[in-house]
Inverse folding.
């Protein structure tokens, strides 16, 4: 690259030196050209060309790492020397399978539709193939546990059998390298995703950081645990630290931006989304989310409306990624025609989300019919939603989010006592004290249940709590969302709305 580009890249990454390289492959041979450059001055410190058999590619990596350390006069510990000398696997096919699987896991981070769900299952298949070729492939077990945990945590396959598969992948990793920081990092994320056990997850990260002091993922996951435990300022500090270590990591920056948004620190949320947009100008997610901030902070949906319309105009195929945002926008704008259009794009796998609570298609149909004033269609949709949700509660009686949705449906059907009981039980199953993010979302929906069943005092009580803590409840939602219509005009409700108004 040009000196300007290299300087920019060095500044973005927070590094003084950059390794540039190219790889050419012909049959079983490979040529690697590498040069170490001072990013501040564009001075070339050294350049080297390697012509080797493809099977020796990891030896080149080891030699390069040692050369760079020598050139920068870095002192490597015995452990670090051993780590760079040992290839992850000697089977190049297994390594290729692993690299492909890792990319699929990273891009399917939050399962939004069947495509990403398919990516996770394919990653599992690729990693199992890699392990079949090399049963001692340690890193493959770590990523395999991560893929199994993602399927479990995201609700794609929330079963004990899936959790057991993650457990056995973790066990295999520890059998191979019991003292490895990567094994402890994998176990930390397993405690987080599989058991919501944040204290043990934190303990494992404390062990992992001893051997991986500059690993961005350790600070990223510490930030997520901080967030769950209500340590909000620690959360953003750790996520920003992770971002400094890995500045181009979109997931970390998204985590920081979403955290600022929940803290109602809208200025920093915007800045962070701007960094994301600069990194990935073709990614719709940060542009849409940044526009949502105007709706959250100022009850102004115009920027959001414009962004979504532009995305749909430029790329009609992206419609399947936007239905839940389009639905909420239509809801906040009281636009039943737009709500119908969003509903047409909603499938069972792209239901509207409310944090941990996944609003089923039938429930959303009921909301849209209610918005139109069609009480017969609304009742039919809510009744169908109830039959479906009762089955879900039978399968997962201890899942607060599943029970909470049943409470919302019963509130819509006028089954007051059942709705209030289900909402209360959901809050007891997942209180804010145990899970500051999901617990606040459950409390938020309990407030909706109270409002819809005429228990206005109870609804106000929950909202007063939510307005004082980081949560999704915000000025824009309380001003615009028709689900709060039963409370409009109550001076206590209007006082809460005013307390969240932009200053």
């Amino acid at each position: 690259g040009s000196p300007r580009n290299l300087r920019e890249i060095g500044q973005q990454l927070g590094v003084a030196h950059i390794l540039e390289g190219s790889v050419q492959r012909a049959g079983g041979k490979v040529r690697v050209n590498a040069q170490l450059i001072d990013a501040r001055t564009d001075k070339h410190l050294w350049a080297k060309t390697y012509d080797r058999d493809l099977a020796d590619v990891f030896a080149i990596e080891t030699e390069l790492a040692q050369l760079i350390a020598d050139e920068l006069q870095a002192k490597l510990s015995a452990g670090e020397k051993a780590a760079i000398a040992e290839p992850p696997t000697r089977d190049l096919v297994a390594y290729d399978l692993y690299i492909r699987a890792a990319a699929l896991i990273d891009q399917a981070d939050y399962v939004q539709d069947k495509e990403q769900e398919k990516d996770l299952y394919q990653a599992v298949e690729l990693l199992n193939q890699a392990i079949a070729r090399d049963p001692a492939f340690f890193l493959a077990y770590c990523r395999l546990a991560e893929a199994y945990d993602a399927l479990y945590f995201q609700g794609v396959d929330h079963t004990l059998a899936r959790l057991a598969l993650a457990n056995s992948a973790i066990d295999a990793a520890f059998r191979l390298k019991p003292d490895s920081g990567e094994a402890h990092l994998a176990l930390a994320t397993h405690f987080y995703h599989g058991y919501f056990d944040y204290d043990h997850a934190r303990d494992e990260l404390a062990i992992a950081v001893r051997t991986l002091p500059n690993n961005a993922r350790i600070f990223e996951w510490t930030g997520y645990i901080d967030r769950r435990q209500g340590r909000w300022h620690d959360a953003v500090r750790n996520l920003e630290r992770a971002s400094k270590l890995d500045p181009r990591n979109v997931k970390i920056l998204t985590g920081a931006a979403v955290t600022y948004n929940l803290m109602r620190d809208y200025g920093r949320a915007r800045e962070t989304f701007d960094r994301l947009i600069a990194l990935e100008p073709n990614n719709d997610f940060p542009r849409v989310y940044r526009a949502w901030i105007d709706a959250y902070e100022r009850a102004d949906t115009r920027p959001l409306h414009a962004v979504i319309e532009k995305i749909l105009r430029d790329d009609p195929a992206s419609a399947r990624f936007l239905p839940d945002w389009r639905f909420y926008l239509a809801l906040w704008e009281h636009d039943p025609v737009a709500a119908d259009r969003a509903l047409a794009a909603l499938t069972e796998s792209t239901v509207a989300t409310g944090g941990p609570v996944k609003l089923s298609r039938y429930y959303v149909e009921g909301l849209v019919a209610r918005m139109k004033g069609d009480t017969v269609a609304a009742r039919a949709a809510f009744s169908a939603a109830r039959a479906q949700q009762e089955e879900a509660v039978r399968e997962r009686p201890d899942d607060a989010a599943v029970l909470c949705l049943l409470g919302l449906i019963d509130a819509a059907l006028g089954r007051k006592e059942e709705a209030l009981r289900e909402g209360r039980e959901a809050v007891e199953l997942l209180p804010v004290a145990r899970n500051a993010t999901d617990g606040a979302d459950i409390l938020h929906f309990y407030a909706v249940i109270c409002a819809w069943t005429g228990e206005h005092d109870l609804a106000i009580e929950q909202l007063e709590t939510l307005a004082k803590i980081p949560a999704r409840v915000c000025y824009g939602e309380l001003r615009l969302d028709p689900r709060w219509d039963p409370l409009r005009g109550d001076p206590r409700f209007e006082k809460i709305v005013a307390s969240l108004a932009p200053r």
Summary: The mean pLDDT is 90. The two ends are 45 Å apart (CA to CA). The domain at 3-85 is CATH 3.40.50.10070 (Rossmann fold).
